[in-house]
UniProtKB/TrEMBL annotation:
Function: Catalyzes the transfer of the enolpyruvyl moiety of phosphoenolpyruvate (PEP) to the 5-hydroxyl of shikimate-3-phosphate (S3P) to produce enolpyruvyl shikimate-3-phosphate and inorganic phosphate.
PANTHER family: AROM/DEHYDROQUINATE SYNTHASE, PENTAFUNCTIONAL AROM POLYPEPTIDE
Name of protein: 3-phosphoshikimate 1-carboxyvinyltransferase
The protein's Enzyme Commission number: 2.5.1.19
Length: 438
């Protein structure tokens, strides 16, 4: 699909969609709990549907309700009282890295005999060293390095060792899986943890379902930071109902468009005290020079004179494409550091952010693992490719608001991965988008 966008500033109010990261975690916990859970979730997307599909393949039942979902957990075996996954299940993770990295350890802990499939770049995205830890703890994984991937055998409780700098999803995946085992386990993470707020989201979901995790921080013998997550073996207990909060990662596109425009943009339905790290988009926009207003459950960004500054992507990798669009029209130089993990997302986002913003007239370059962006007054517009990456498609659409000529985005259907309503909301904010077949 091609999105043809006529340059125009955006303004107005849109409601936040449901947080994909929070939804993955709450739906998984609900499927592993001791009873039915109602999950209020006002929107869905391809990635959330992938997680639902995988849980259903393992034996959970997910009913669609008016406000969201009613999740019936994977049944327990009468004989042993433990959760019993359906044998021979195929878990189609679509293009969702979170789904694969969360459901693989979950399937291993259930002792499922399962096959994982997926699409797009998912098979190339790393699973190492999570996979090696699962193998060392009793699972037989075949087909590593691509998809399909199969698992057999049941994970044993114990100590799992992971580095902190590959993907926080490995740590979240193990945290979600280990309560299934009903015995104490420890996850030991060495080095500085990147994407750390996503682990906080996982711990929050576990706590909601009665699983408490003790976190110890300190240093290993070699002086490196070491974080230990200690699980005491307590199982998931349903609280009856839970609610998925608004998504800051996707609200960020509108808030950034607000900073780049001439009038305010408000996103409603957001928790201002959320554990989502991407809430820091507000702090970043304030450093750029935009004015921020916080009210109950909503954030508003007013344009200001934007100027570049230096920031780290360590805890906010998903904000990098859209913050780069803001930086493209901010005076002076912006440096976004610690971007190495962007290479292993739906596309190599260091490359695709640079290439596509440059195609639209920006001045962006990669220096080692950093992005260096020299601001220009206006972008030129032109043709951009989404590279099958939702955040690149949405970045280009936001860049169009400050282009002198129209922007054409090829592969615009990529937005469906996290935000099927994206172009509808773009129009609701006054944007002019026509969609056509490629
Ligand atoms: O746990 C999560 O929900 C996510 C963690 C992050 O990945 P990494 O930990 O691999 O950086 C983030 O980029 C991804 O979009 C969602
Ligand atoms: C990287 C993302 O998701 P995932 O890793 O779950 O595919 C994302 O939503 O930008």
């Amino acid at each position: 699909m091609i999105a043809h966008i006529a340059p125009a500033h955006l303004a107005g109010t849109v409601p936040a969609i449901a947080s994909k990261s929070v939804a993955h975690r709450l739906i998984i916990a609900a499927a592993l709990a001791n009873g039915v859970t109602d999950v209020t979730c006002n929107t869905s997307c391809a990635d959330i549907e992938a997680t639902i599909r995988c849980l259903e393949a393992l034996g959970a039942k997910v009913e669609r309700a008016e406000q969201g979902l009613r999740v019936h957990p994977i049944p327990k075996s009468q004989e042993h009282g433990i959760l019993r996954a359906l044998a021979g299940a195929t878990l189609d993770c679509g293009e969702s890295g979170s789904t694969l990295r969360f459901m693989l350890p979950v399937a291993c802990a259930l002792g499922a005999d399962a096959t994982f499939t997926g699409a797009g770049r998912l098979g190339e995205r790393p699973l190492s060293p999570l996979a090696e830890e699962l193998i060392a703890a009793g699972c037989d994984l075949q087909g590593l390095g691509s998809l399909p991937l199969t698992t057999k055998g049941r994970l044993r409780a114990g100590t799992f060792k992971l580095p902190g700098n590959v993907s926080s999803q490995y740590i979240s995946g193990l945290l979600l899986a280990l309560p299934i085992l009903g015995q104490p386990s420890v996850i030991e993470v060495t080095g500085t943890i990147e994407s750390k707020p996503y682990i906080a989201l996982t711990l929050q979901a576990l706590e909601t379902f009665g699983v408490s995790v003790r976190v110890e921080t300190g240093a290993a013998l070699d002086g490196q930071p070491r974080t230990r997550y200690l699980l005491d073996g307590s199982p998931y207990r349903t609280p009856g109902s839970v609610s998925v909060e608004g998504d800051w990662s996707n609200a960020a596109f509108w808030l950034c468009a607000g900073a780049m425009g001439t009038e305010c943009i408000t996103v409603s339905g957001l928790s201002l005290s959320s554990a989502q790290g991407d809430r820091n988009v507000l702090a970043a926009l304030s450093c750029f020079g935009a004015r921020i207003r916080r009210s109950t459950g909503a954030a508003t960004v007013q344009p200001g004179t934007l100027h570049g500054f230096t920031l780290s992507a360590r805890d906010v990798p998903d904000l990098v494409p859209v913050l780069s669009a803001v930086a493209s029209v901010a005076k002076g130089t912006t440096v976004i550091r610690d971007c190495s993990r962007l290479r292993i997302k739906e596309s190599d986002r260091l490359q695709t952010t640079t290439k596509e913003l440059c195609n639209l007239g920006a001045r962006v370059r990669i220096v080692d693992d950093d992005l260096v962006i020299e601001g220009v007054d206006e972008l030129s517009g032109g043709v951009a490719c989404a590279h099958n990456d939702h955040r690149i498609a949405m970045m280009a659409a936001v860049a169009a608001t400050r282009s002198s000529e129209p922007v054409e985005i090829h592969g615009a259907e990529a937005v469906n991965k996290s935000y099927p309503l994206f172009f509808e909301h773009y129009r609701a904010l006054g944007g002019s988008v026509a969609l056509s077949e490629e």
